[in-house]
Write the structure tokens for this entry.
Amino acid sequence: MRKALVILAVIAFASTAMAQDIIVTELMYNSIGTDVEWIELYNRSDADVDLTGWTITDTGDGSHVPGDLDGIMAPGDVMVFCISISMFNVQYPTVTNYFADQSSGNWGLGNGGDDVFLIDSTGTQVFGMSYDDNSSWPACDGDGPSLTLIDADCVDFSDGANWTTSSADWGTPGIIETTVSNDETSFGAVKALFR
């Protein structure tokens, strides 16, 4: 009996650890001028993650049409979910590591704060965060920079103290900022691969 409980505890821990293998590392929710919105995803695990059937949404109640994700993200891979690929391509013509445009024209991030949820193919929420534009969050509301995660190993993605503004106006979608770090990866090296 004890052995079975230990095995169940290990399985439960593994499931929890896997729940946030794919995380949000940067997002542009209110750019300068025309709102070119996007969300950057990063596979911080040491395994491939198949995103077939996964969706991304900004509400937990299913009231907004979710955006579809697809493909396999290898360890260290970075991908961008664009609200509008045509607008994204005008602003970021050299960035090509983004998901197919399946946002159905009914997707957007709130300029005054919002949520981001990743839902896997079983309908399980595997990542969730809330951001805001109040004083506890970095000031980047329509001024040019994006929100950038400071540490990929943080435990609370909804805490403004874990985020900073990007080093460049319009952010750096599809590459990992040098400010983001974890114990196993030099993001400066990863960033160089995507430039």
Residues 42 and 151 are 12 Å apart (CA to CA). The longest strand covers residues 125-132. Confidence is low (pLDDT under 50) at residues 1-17, 182-195.
